[in-house]
Amino acid sequence: MTTRLRDLGIGIGRYPTGPRNSITDVAGVRVGHSTIIRGDAGPLRVGEGPVRTGVTAVIPHPGDTWERPCFAGFFALNGSGEWTGMHFVREAGTLYGPIMTTNSHSVGTVRDAVVAIESRRRGVLERLPVVGETWDGMLNDIGGLHVREEHVAHALDTASEVVAEGSVGGGTGMVCHGFKGGIGTSSRVVEQPAGTYTLGVMVQANHGGREEFEVAGVPVGEMIPLSEVPLGVPGSQDRGPLDPHKNSILIIVATDAPLLPSQCERIAHRATLGVARNGAYGHHLSGDFALAFSTAQHPREGFDFGASEVESLRVLPNSALSPLLAAAMECTQEAILNALVAAETMEGADGFRAFGLDASRLQECVGRYSGPLSPQPPSPPGD
């Protein structure tokens, strides 16, 4: 069973979580991973390994995601990275197809694979797949381009409501705040006069420096410095430590609240505040992106339904949006910490090593500030 933050007695925020504390608490959302780990840690041989990478798929709803788009919005806290298909999301306010995440050099492969899979299924149609990336080149033979179409197909075909966290899928070779990073997720349920809605987040966390790392306001990065838990190649300066200024994070936000694209963009914007609450701030060469979508309604073919027709929509008033903005921040903050707690120590290319964040050490650090810790409900079973 995977350890999660709340299992350690550490809670984040004031809103309750959904039953899984996962992005899949938003009905219909599913997540699939394909994890590729090959070769023992050792000298990097491009094209051979060691391989520590993968791909993750987020399916927005159980129907045809190409024919039934979702309203969506995008925000870049810092833009040193890539998320394909996002120009159209920002232009039209609609999201088509699955959301894919992988390593920086495999974006094109994953994008092409999604097109090929869809073309075989439905014939050749215009498709602009949404594929985001973060860099795993310290642990992984990223130049070897080991992600293939079969890995993309596996992630899509195995998507389910159970979300594995840590060193899986697109998060396999990622590093966060000087520890092993990866995939994390969390959710919140917001009750208000306008209705009860669920919001969930999944992150691919590969960002932040050790010295800036905080948990619930506790300066954990200063309490567990690199001198105590190092990051890099043991006994060698050939590759040096990972530069936190070149790291990135992908944030995917789902909600069943009926939102317009502009409101989704506001949600995406607030999600990045969760990054800041853990101490990071969007370094110069960091790609920190958030994509938010609503599953509440599906505009017919993105409004291309005829000039003589009028589409009727349900919309949450802006005056009721603030709790969802707060939930997006809370979920992102906790999802990052779930990724860190779940990820285990990994050694890869040229012996580069990223240590997992030790759960007992984290409890000790937070306990110094808050006193004895007890489990925070709920603590759903991991994968």
Describe the SSE topology.
Layout: E1 30-38, E2 51-59, E3 70-79, E4 83-84, H1 86-92, E5 94-95, E6 99-103, H2 107-122, E7 130-134, H3 149-157, E8 175-176, E9 179-180, E10 182-192, E11 195-206, H4 220-223, E12 231-232, E13 248-255, H5 261-277, E14 287-294, H6 322-342, E15 346-347, E16 353-354, H7 359-370
Parallel strand pairs: 6-7, 13-14
Antiparallel strand pairs: 1-2, 2-6, 3-5, 3-14, 4-7, 8-9, 10-11, 11-13, 12-16, 15-16
Describe the model.
The protein has 383 residues and is an alpha+beta fold. The protein has one domain (5-303, 316-367): L-amino peptidase D-ALA esterase/amidase (4-Layer Sandwich), CATH 3.60.70.12. The protein is 22% helix and 24% strand. The chain has helices spanning 86-92, 107-122, 149-157, 220-223, 261-277, 322-342, 359-370; strands at 30-38, 51-59, 70-79, 83-84, 94-95, 99-103, 130-134, 175-176, 179-180, 182-192, 195-206, 231-232, 248-255, 287-294, 346-347, 353-354. It has a 6-stranded mixed sheet. Helix 2 (107-122) packs across helix 3 (149-157) and helix 5 packs across helix 6 (322-342). The chain is globular.
